[in-house]
Design brief:
There is one protein chain. With 270 residues, the protein is an alpha/beta fold. The protein has one domain (3-269). It is built from 13 helices and eight strands. The protein has helices at 3-14, 39-52, 63-71, 73-81, 90-98, 109-123, 134-147, 166-176, 189-201, 212-217, 225-229, 233-240, 242-269, and strands at residues 26-29, 32-35, 56-61, 84-87, 126-131, 152-157, 180-184, 205-208. The strands form two sheets. Strands 4-3-8-7-5-6 form a six-stranded parallel β-sheet, sandwiched between helices. The protein has a two-stranded antiparallel ribbon with strand order 1-2. Strand 5, helix 7 and strand 6 form a beta-alpha-beta unit.
Length: 270
């Protein structure tokens, strides 16, 4: 276990948050600790974090983000210091099996997002939506409040602002009295922003949700359920956006596979 994650887990336990520190509870994927949780486990853990008070954040990782973290020390530190990290990509689950520390299941950012919105509506947590285009974030709010009339929306704004405006944005979120914050700025921008601003926003929990607002608002289509279950969502996205995604999936996934194979053989030699 890394020192960063160990310190965080120790601090969480001191606050009464039930996060185990045993080796079996996470898998080291190319230097990033991914928690061995089901979707239900993740939701339960987040509920405990929210109830404990203070400001917390979770992150989701796919192959591309893990490869990026091997080159970006800031991103890697943010992932190691997150209260919870889940496998957003099926490639991460497959890698855990290669490394003989299999994760329970894929727990995606969009699925966590939708489950947490449902929890917020049921438990009375106020939510704030930050990121994406105006039509996307507005459409997300309209869709979710239509689905959950009892949902408390503390506020929303698009993701087009300068770094110099971050303090102002964080202050507006604090003034909204939001409990949960969902940030759709893309990676690694959303991870950077959350790590630097989750405290000043005053929210109890924040999650980076990537392109989820586009999907929830109906501006983008998600892969069919059978492709998601089969781990082929990446192929669906590649076919739809080949120019933007070919490098990530064809080159990035090859680099990720090499990292996992190297890690596997390194573990064997030791």
């Amino acid at each position: 276990m890394t020192d960063a994650r160990g310190r965080l887990r120790k601090n969480s336990a001191a606050r009464g948050i039930d996060l185990s520190t045993t080796r079996a509870d996470f898998c080291d994927i190319a230097g990033v600790d991914v928690d061995n949780v089901s979707e239900d486990d993740a939701i339960a853990a987040i509920e405990r974090l929210v109830d404990a008070g203070g400001s917390h954040y979770a992150a989701v990782v796919n192959a591309a983000k893990i490869v990026a973290a091997t080159k970006d020390e800031k991103l890697k530190r943010i992932l190691l210091e997150a209260d919870l990290v889940t496998a957003d990509g099926m490639s991460v689950v497959w890698a855990s099996r290669i490394l003989s520390t299999p994760l329970k299941q894929r727990v995606t950012g969009i699925d966590l997002f939708e489950r947490l919105v449902a929890c917020s509506a049921a438990l009375g947590w106020a939510v704030y939506f930050l990121g994406a285009r105006d039509e996307s974030v507005r459409g997300t709010v309209e869709h979710l409040t239509g689905r959950y009339p009892e949902l408390l929306v503390a506020g929303h704004r698009n993701g087009f602002f300068e770094a110099s405006e971050s303090a102002e944005v964080a202050s507006a979120i604090r003034d909204s009295s939001a409990d949960l914050l969902f940030v759709a700025l893309g990676s690694p921008a959303q991870e950077y922003w959350i790590a630097e601003n989750v405290g000043p926003t005053g929210v109890r929990f924040a999650l980076g949700v990537g392109g989820s607002f586009d999907h929830v608002s109906g501006l983008a289509r998600r892969a069919p359920e059978w492709m998601r279950r089969s781990g082929l969502e990446w192929l669906y996205r590649l076919v739809r956006e080949p120019r933007r995604l070919w490098r990530r999936y064809l080159i990035g996934n090859s680099v990720f596979l090499w990292l996992i194979i190297r890690q596997r053989f390194s573990a064997r030699s030791q």
